[in-house]
Amino acid sequence: MLDIHENNISAVLLNDGWHQPIAGTFKIGDIRIHAEAAAGVDFGRSSATWDERSAAAASTMVTVSAPLTSILAIQQTK
Predict the structure, then answer these.
(1) 3-state SS assignment for residue 37
(2) Which domain does 50 fall in, by range?
(3) Is residue 1 part of a domain?
(4) Sheet holding 41-53, edge to edge
(5) What is the distance of C-alpha 36 from the center of its chain?
(6) For residue 39, how far is the Cα from the chain centroid?
(7) Signed CA dihedral, 56, 61, 62, 66: sign only
């Protein structure tokens, strides 16, 4: 079995291409989306979240959240 550590993930491949998480921001856990008109939607524990630089403006950071099933590949540093 290959051990992958959250803190070592340096790239994540989604359908739209490779994403570069800012070091130490990749986490596995719960995602809950809160809506003003309805109760929150709970995606459960099989989700990943990380921060990255925006493709539109490199000086802006964004948070990306995705179900683990949408991750096609990961790259980790050793």
Answers:
(1) coil
(2) 6-76
(3) no
(4) 27-33, 41-53, 61-67
(5) 24
(6) 23
(7) positive
Residues 39-60 have pLDDT tens digits of 655 555 688 999 999 877 778 8
User: Could you give the CA distance from residue 6 to residue 8 in angstroms, rounded to a whole number?
Assistant: 5
Q: Number of structural domains, the chain?
A: 1
Give this prediction's pTM.
0.77
Residue 37 lies in a domain: yes
- Closest Cα partner for 51 from 14, 78, 23, 17? 23
- CA–CA–CA angle 31, 36, 37 (5° rounding): 110
Q: CA Rg, the chain, in Å?
A: 14
Q: Are 28 and 50 in contact (CB under 8 A)?
A: no
Element (H, E) at 50: strand 41-53
